[in-house]
Design a protein that fits this description.
93 residues, alpha+beta, 3-stranded antiparallel sheet
Length: 93
C-alpha cells in the first residue's frame, strides 16, 4: 500500500515511512524510558536516541548526509503547529 501523495499528485510525501514507523513504536519507546529523547529515523532504521535536537540532527547528518531523515522528539502527544496567513498571497503576473 502506498503512502499519502503530495497535493500535486504522483509522488509520495517525504518521510511518510519514517513518521508511520515513529507512530507504531512511540508507546514502546515511552515504556522503555525514552520520553523526551530525540530519535533519528531513516526508513525503518533507528539511528539512536539523543538528549537534544542538535545532537540528533548532527548524528543524522553524519550518517545519512543531507537527508531526508526524520528527527522527532518522543512525546506522548505530538505538538500541533498552527500557521496563519496574515497577508494575502501575491499572485505572479
Amino acid at each position: 500500500m502506498k503512502g499519502p501523495q503530495s497535493p500535486a499528485g504522483g509522488h509520495e510525501l517525504p518521510l511518510t515511512a519514517e513518521v508511520a514507523y515513529f507512530h507504531r513504536h512511540r508507546a514502546e519507546w515511552i515504556a522503555e524510558g525514552r520520553l523526551g529523547k530525540w530519535v533519528v529515523l531513516k526508513g525503518e532504521e533507528v539511528l539512536g536516541f539523543f538528549a537534544s535536537f542538535a545532537e540528533a540532527y548532527a548524528a543524522g547528518s553524519a550518517r545519512f548526509g543531507p537527508g531526508p531523515f526524520l528527527v522527532k522528539c518522543v512525546q506522548e502527544k505530538d505538538d500541533v503547529a498552527i500557521i496563519k496567513r496574515t497577508r494575502p498571497f501575491l499572485r505572479a503576473r
